[in-house]
Amino acid sequence: MNAAPIALELCALSKVYTLERGMFKPAAEIRAVNAVSLRLHRGQTLGLVGESGCGKSTLARMLLGLLEPSAGHVLVNGQQVGPARRKENARCIQPIFQDPYSSLNPRKTVADIVGLPLKLHRIGNSAQQTRSVRRMLDLVGMPQRTDSHYPNQLSGGQRQRVAIARALILQPEILVCDEPTSSLDVSVQAQILNLLLDLKAEFGLAYLFISHDLGVVEHLADQVAVMHKGSIVELESRERIFCNAQHPYTRMLLASALTPEPGLGIPELAASE
Ligand SMILES: Nc1ncnc2c1ncn2[C@@H]1O[C@H](COP(=O)(O)OP(=O)(O)OP(=O)(O)O)[C@@H](O)[C@H]1O
Question: Quick check: ipTM above 0.90?
Answer without folding.
Answer: yes
